[in-house]
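Predict the assembly for these two chains.
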Amino acid sequence: MRLLAALFLAAPAAAQEADPVTPASIVAESAPEEWVAIAPQDLLVMELAPDAQGRVRQVVIQLLPPPFSQPWVENIRTLARAHWWDGTSVYRVVDNWVAQWGGGEGEEFAEKPLSEGVVSPDAPYAADGVHRMIDHALGEQVAIFEQVFGTRIAWPFGKDAYAPHAFILRGWPLAADDMRLNAWPVHCYGHVGVARDLAPDTGTGAELYAVIGHAPRQLDRNIAVIGRVIEGIAHLSTLPRGTGDAGVYETRAEDTPILSVRLGSDLSDPPAFEYLSTTSASFARYVASRANRNDAFYTVPAGGVDICNVQVPIRRTRE
Amino acid sequence: MRLLAALFLAAPAAAQEADPVTPASIVAESAPEEWVAIAPQDLLVMELAPDAQGRVRQVVIQLLPPPFSQPWVENIRTLARAHWWDGTSVYRVVDNWVAQWGGGEGEEFAEKPLSEGVVSPDAPYAADGVHRMIDHALGEQVAIFEQVFGTRIAWPFGKDAYAPHAFILRGWPLAADDMRLNAWPVHCYGHVGVARDLAPDTGTGAELYAVIGHAPRQLDRNIAVIGRVIEGIAHLSTLPRGTGDAGVYETRAEDTPILSVRLGSDLSDPPAFEYLSTTSASFARYVASRANRNDAFYTVPAGGVDICNVQVPIRRTRE
């Protein structure tokens, strides 16, 4: 994997004198047609109460596409349409762990029944029997890297501490088992999952958490990942940490109220986002750059990158 | 590595009915003699201005031992003894990246010369030629695992995305090159490094950062890691994110003032900490449990753990 670094060093003299190539410069120079729009029905827009200075706090979550976690994603769409989260709160924040909100503990929820049809799914946390999808994704990665860099460049997710395979498919970091039969979404910074009790079948999606620290990959396949925060994560990561049991705030006064949670498709003027196609040439260059930082600041490229440090580029769609 | 999970499942029936074994329960049941005191001269105690509610904000940093980054660590001891940081501030906070403080940009620092002898070290970010140390550390790990679990248990840091070897030595996560000649400290959540300009030899230690997001391992060997926050990281991770260039606050009024930074050995009543010896039987059990969560909540053990997710147990020394 050192080859990539050599490749950048071997660039023409003119290119070397120009501004160095960085992940940010690659994204800035990508072509408009390399970006893929995110559908409004895949966005969840959460409005928290304004902060102490009266500033709006909006958190936008992108929901995970099929074949992953869809029974929970459907519950979440149902709850958003029913305005179920309005008036709930962020009530648990643990440093280097999660911020958690929605249907929580406490008597106030006893009188807030879930929407019709929202039950805890009896569904797996990994997609089973998806070997064609996995092989296709792994093949696509190799192909785009070969096309952009030549055949001797290795895909840089060679080593993952938590799974035999780590890869990116349609904008999402995923992992797969040794036999490449099952694939599952992973817990990275900003990713959102379904809180549950001790028994695995106790989470509906009414109670959610976002990761606000180092990727807790040990949760993979133990909880349903349903999406990721694509804007506004700092409104959650900067909240005071809870001092009660398991980081729950000791008093309800410490909670951050949730004014509303809506599906993008239910808003008259939804925010519009797009992601850099993960089969584009610019994405291949972006990943290679992330794995081999060798620019004005960096002098020792790592030769690899953790799947949670790739951070698929996502931006507001330009008007 | 699935063996470990099997091992826990095969525990006697009585043990199965008892409370499940978790990383926390292993730490709670460790023996007092398995803990190692941290010397007061290895502690840096930073007092931030009180928060809006008037609460004290103290951040305690443990400095890295030899053979790593010692020229910067010595600079830092010198600056602390000179009270150099008193009156400086935390002036840059970037979500999922770092909080940064000390000798920063701005005219106020033009009149604040560094202490006598504090210059930018011409030193490497990795310790070179330490193959005996590395082999000893890797051997120790295997030995303690064999002793506790039997010979068929693999050490769970088999795969690291950023380095050929990842290991823990005297309480610190480290990485090493393929030939096991050079070793270096890694960037994990809470770890502290020396900010610098573009040229590698421009950091003195007067300007420091702490990681407040997913481990930015691409910085390894590109910056000097000098320690880690062992208490009070939330006082940094919850700070508002900066909205100026590179996350620097746009106005000095947004900064968090630093009242004082002192070496533990210069305080009349320093805080006392200890870490769980990383060659103890309890630490082997702790790592195995982290790599194979299989308790009341977890049902699918990962079979491995990222070196930055091990989190060596550190606690206040009991009186």
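Chain A has one domain: 2-107+119-316. DSSP finds seven helices and 14 strands in chain A.
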